[in-house]
Amino acid sequence: MIHYEYGTPQRIGKFDCSENYVFFQEKKSIRPTFSAERIFGGTVLAMCSNDFICFYNWAECRLIRRIDVNVKVSAFMRTSIGLIVVIASDTSFYILKYNRDVVASYLDSKTAVDEQGVEDAFELLHEMNERVRTGIWVGDCFIYNYSSWRLNYCVSGEVTTMSHLDRPMYLLGYLASQSKVYLIDKEFKTLVMRGDLDRANEVLPSIPKEHHNRGQELLVKQFLKLATIEVEGETKLQREVAEKS
After folding, report:
1. Contact by Cβ (8 Å): 57, 44
2. Is residue 148, in this structure, part of any structural domain at all?
3. pLDDT level of residue 192 (50, 70, 90 thresholds)
4. Where are the annotated coiled coils located (predicted)?
């Protein structure tokens, strides 16, 4: 049996998958005292208002830490130095270390905390004055693109430019088998995600043909509807997904 935990704007629960059966079971619910504009999953659950982000543990939905920053992106990753989280605002991004042992000790003690949570739950490692649009962790490396249309990576606080992009793009993910990072055209993704496939077909010719099928497995995982778009040179993967749809 595979166990997943997830969060939605309405509830927090768990997703269990056993053979061909899928079960949804509510686990806990949170009624925050603020308007939650965004939520992020990962090692812990994060909820954002327009002014701050709050982290909660999954098991009991107890407050771990509140950080006063307007967060647009949040991503956890297990690295060689422990659990690391990136939180990105409109102007900067911050790399913090999650002190799991400190948090576990607090949770076990049942100690009450104020609205700021556990003071030592996170340790600030680096602050970078760049606006992250999309970002992913690849091992100890945080790869991201930002407002200057550059694809960068950050390791131990050192930033290196990988590529200069010719238009706004979204990061999809990383394929370890090919050692490649995949991105998608911003307008194309927006159209597909909102179901405007006719308009997406009109935009498709503006994307170089050599990129039509690259990383298609990642694309399909993001949105199965992509398989219905008429990409030149139908692949086996497209046919399989179309049949499942």
Report:
1. yes
2. no
3. low
4. none
